């Protein structure tokens, strides 16, 4: 191989290398762009969902329903109330349907706790039962 | 803190009750059940009406020194304490006299004579006096050897002393609970870590409303009287179970019921019985921590404490 032929091969190799680097750079750029886009898109969805009050964690999950039914009357009343509201104006009331039972449960839990404390205080306040001494 | 758990049951020829407030209802119930079984077991072992009781076996044992369980030894020691603290007025070795007077079996299933009927059989009041024999002095206890020593034939009557003793023993088991009361047919031990006051109603011997209300956070109350166990005696006259140690006959001192406050139920029983036997003139002297006296006319006298119970509790 003469020197001219060698230089041509060298230039060809350099061109291929540049083209390869260019393709790699383009690919890297695309991956980064797609990742950023996907990230932004996901957060956008979450933001919209939260902003409209549809928090998936606080929604009608089975565990929440179980707690509500277990706690008894006040929770049942709330759920019944929500159902009535849905029947009248479903779209307007929908966010409240998700939020209200949770608040009610919190209030109910606080009330139960207060009741327990009150009962404990009453038990403490209560005089020990009187006893009668009589002839043995 | 939970509510107080209560349990009443037949024991010692009457009704015993246990009241416990614990950290939880369940714990209170466990404590009450445990206390109840202690009392019933003690009754089984110390009843003089049971042929198989340890007390009956001891009373009939011909030996001078008799092996005895810790409970029996505690009772024997309590008999000595009662005699010494009352100057011999409270004498638990008068069993033969009680049997002679007609108290041979438990009167659980019989309606006692009315107190007015009993009183109509007595005309003269006379304070009780100690027996010259003072047989209780001959009783001794050896905890190391695990024996009770007494002259053969000296018989112990568990009676009120046994009830007071048992109220104290069970109270010791319950002492860490916030509140408790152990009522052995009127001999009551009260206490608890919460230091709560408990009302103690003093029964009317004539059957009316309670004659007085006491309040205690810790200590004991006991009542002794002639109206609870009385029967027609062998001579036709009414008889009852509180004997004048000197005569060995049912005592009529003019006081029909005495209630005493004391640091322990055993001492309360001793003070109450000594007050009843001392008669109206000297009864108050027998109630150092206060009490209530009812005389044969139904008059109620409340005796103030000459010595604060709190001091006695600190010493005990």
Give a verbal description of the structure:
The complex is a heterodimer of chains A (136) and B (316). Chain A folds into 2 domains: 7-51; 55-121. Chain A contains 4 helices and 1 strand, in the order H-H-H-H-E. Chain A has helices at residues 3-51, 62-71, 73-88, 90-125; one strand spanning 131-133. In chain A, helix 2 packs across helix 4. The longest helix of chain A has 49 residues, at 3-51. Mean pLDDT of chain A is 72; it is low at 61-94. In chain B, helix 3 packs parallel to helix 7. Chain B has 316 residues and is an alpha+beta fold. Chain B has an 8-stranded antiparallel beta sheet with strand order 1-2-6-7-10-15-16-17. A 3-stranded antiparallel beta sheet of chain B has the order 3-5-4, covered by helices on one side. A two-stranded antiparallel sheet of chain B has the order 8-9. Chain B is globular, with a radius of gyration of 19 Å. Chain B has one domain (58-163, 188-315): ApbE-like domains (T-fold). Chain B starts with a strand and ends with a helix. Chain B contains 8 helices and 17 strands. In chain B, strand 13 and strand 14 (249-250) form a beta hairpin. Chains A and B meet through helix 4 and strand 1 of A and strand 2, strand 6, strand 7, strand 8 and strand 10 of B.
Task: Label this structure with key terms.
heterodimer, A: 136 residues, mainly alpha, 2 domains, 4 helices, 82% helix, rod-shaped, B: 316 residues, alpha+beta, T-fold, eight-stranded antiparallel sheet, three-stranded antiparallel sheet, 8 helices, globular
Number of strands of chain B: 17
Largest sheet composition of chain B: 8 strands, antiparallel
Helices and strands of chain B, in order, run as: EEHHEHHHEEHEEEEEEEEEEHEEH
**Strand fraction band of chain A?**
under 5%
Helical amount of chain B? 25-40%
Q: Overall pLDDT of chain A, averaged?
A: 72
Strand order of the largest sheet of chain B: 1-2-6-7-10-15-16-17
Q: pLDDT below 50 for ≥5 consecutive residues: which ranges of chain B?
A: none
Name of the CATH class of chain B: Alpha Beta
DSSP summary: helix tally of chain A: 4
CATH A-level architecture of chain B: Roll
Principal-axis shape of chain B? globular
Report Rg of chain A. 35 Å
H/E element order of chain A: HHHHE
What share of residues are in beta strands of chain B? 25-35%
CATH superfamily of chain B: ApbE-like domains
């Amino acid at each position: 191989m003469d020197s001219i032929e060698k230089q041509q091969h060298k230039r060809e190799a350099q061109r291929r290398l540049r083209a390869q680097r260019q393709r790699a750079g383009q690919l890297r750029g695309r991956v980064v762009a797609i990742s950023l886009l996907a990230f932004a898109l996901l957060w956008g969805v979450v933001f919209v969902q939260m902003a409209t009050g549809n928090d998936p964690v606080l929604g009608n999950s089975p565990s929440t329903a179980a707690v509500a039914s277990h706690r008894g009357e006040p929770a049942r009343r709330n759920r019944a109330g929500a159902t009535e509201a849905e029947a009248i104006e479903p779209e307007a009331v929908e966010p409240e349907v998700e939020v209200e039972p949770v608040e009610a449960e919190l209030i109910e839990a606080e009330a139960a706790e207060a009741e327990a404390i009150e009962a404990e205080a009453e038990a403490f306040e209560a005089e020990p039962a009187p006893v009668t001494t009589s002839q043995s | 803190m939970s509510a107080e758990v209560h349990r009443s049951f037949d024991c010692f020829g009457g009704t015993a009750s246990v009241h416990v407030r614990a950290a939880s209802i369940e714990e209170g119930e466990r404590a009450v059940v445990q206390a109840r079984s202690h009392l019933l077991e003690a009754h089984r072992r110390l009843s003089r009406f049971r042929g198989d009781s340890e007390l009956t076996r001891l009373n009939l044992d011909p030996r001078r020194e008799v092996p005895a369980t810790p409970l029996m030894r505690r009772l024997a020691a309590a008999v000595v304490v009662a005699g010494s603290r009352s100057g011999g007025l409270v004498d638990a070795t008068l069993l033969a006299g009680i049997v002679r007077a007609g108290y041979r079996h438990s009167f659980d299933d019989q309606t006692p004579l009315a107190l007015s009927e009993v009183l109509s059989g007595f005309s003269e009041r006379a304070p009780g006096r100690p027996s010259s024999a003072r047989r209780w002095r001959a009783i001794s206890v050896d905890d190391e050897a695990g024996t009770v020593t007494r002259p053969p034939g000296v018989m112990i009557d568990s009676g009120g002393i046994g009830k007071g003793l048992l109220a104290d023993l069970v109270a010791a088991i319950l002492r860490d609970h916030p509140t408790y009361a152990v009522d052995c047919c009127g001999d009551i031990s009260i206490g608890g870590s919460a230091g709560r006051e408990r009302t103690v109603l003093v029964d009317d011997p004539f059957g009316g409303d309670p004659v007085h209300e006491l309040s205690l956070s810790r200590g004991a109350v006991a009542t002794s009287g002639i109206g609870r166990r009385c029967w027609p005696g062998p001579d036709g006259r009414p008889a009852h179970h509180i004997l004048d140690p000197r005569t060995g006959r049912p005592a009529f001192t003019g006081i029909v019921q005495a209630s005493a406050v004391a640091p322990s139920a055993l001492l309360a029983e001793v003070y109450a019985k000594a007050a009843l036997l001392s008669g109206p003139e000297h009864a108050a002297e027998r109630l150092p921590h206060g009490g209530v006296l009812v005389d044969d006319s139904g008059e109620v006298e409340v005796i103030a404490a000459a010595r604060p119970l709190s001091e006695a509790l600190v010493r005990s």
